[in-house]
Amino acid sequence: MSEQGLKRNIKMFEAMIFVIGFVIGSGVFLKPTVVLNNMGSSAGALSIWIIGGLITLCASLTICEIAAYIPKLGGLYTYLCELYGDVYGYLYGWTEAIIASPGGSAAMAIAIATFSTFFVPMSPVQQKLFAILMVLVVVTAQIISTKCGVYLQSLATVGKLIPIGAIIVYGLMNGTAHDVSFTPVAATGSGIGVALLGVLWSYDGWINTCTLGAEVENSPKNLPRAIIGGLLFVIVVYIAFNLAIFNVVPTSEMLASNKIGVDVSVRLFGAGGTAFITAGMIVSIFGALNAQMTCGTRIALAMGQNRVLPAGKILGTIHPKLRTPIHALLFQTLLCIGFILTGSFDSLTDLTIFAIWIFFTLGIYGIFILRKKMPRDENLYKVPLYPLTPILGMLGGVYLLYSTVKDSFQGAMLGIVLTLIGLPVYYYCKHKNKKDLNRVL
Asked: Phi, psi at residue 34, to the nearest 5°?
């Protein structure tokens, strides 16, 4: 697969900022109450944030070794192709590039528009138009320059960390509740399974940084460092944020809140805190939107270069002057706009989560295949505590799949059906490519 034309100009620190900006979205503001309600105590809730972070860290430590040995465009799509075969990689790429990435981007754009109504009242139609505008702003920046998109991501990450950092510092210093204990609260949740689902969802997104493998400087070494460093930072932020919340709001009151980030901000900073935290959430989600569009585009670009999507020859090209994947960006934009016009936030976020996690779990297991297929290079990163680390990461993925089937069987099956729809397209493209090759010969 040709990668000619992409600039390898993303530094390690910029890639780390990308990880932080993608992972920290709306979950840190919305999930603490859900986790508390399902764990039944504040100390139990803190424990599950730590456990979820460790599971995510185990998965990332494992995938990073694969990234070091296959530092190519496309991330997990390319890893699955090389480790399992083209069909497995294609099915993940199809799900991510056609549905999950543009659908996730649409959900984030809709969320931005929804939160923006706090400042500017908008009708449902106006909200959709505003969501489309946000997508166009992101895409325009990425068309101009990949570096421009990275700068946008860095600014958004700094912007989102300001309100989070303020809540952590002021909450830990000035809080009076001090309510961290294993004392049971009047919770009505389903238990540890649902709590872990919420936590893992909040940690999700780091793996998409692997799609930048062809653009990170010294990718075999810097990409693993960026992912691991970024995730460690996020884990610390999440734990500190929850500690601050329990230090400010008693658990009995926290259970009654459906917007704990806003409520804590109001307690700490007064009525203006609502505007403060809402603005922070908008910036936070905008950064995640920028990252999602970047990663989905790279998967579509890689699949285009492999000629496994219709019009792959066009999708796989890079603008000769701008050195950006314009056609793949426009392709993702059109799909995203379609999802914005036809879907809602909840329906879009639930669409393919089960199928995507099947491929994530396969990716973690891929470390065992990698070590059999490829010769070892002692200069490259290797996962610590092998094989315990990948096994723990896999157990987290398997548990998430089990919980999804148990709690949302129809949604899980829909995700599988949407994934398998890509098979006829794959074989059509393979057949067409073979005919084109024979015609040339």
From this structure: -60, -45
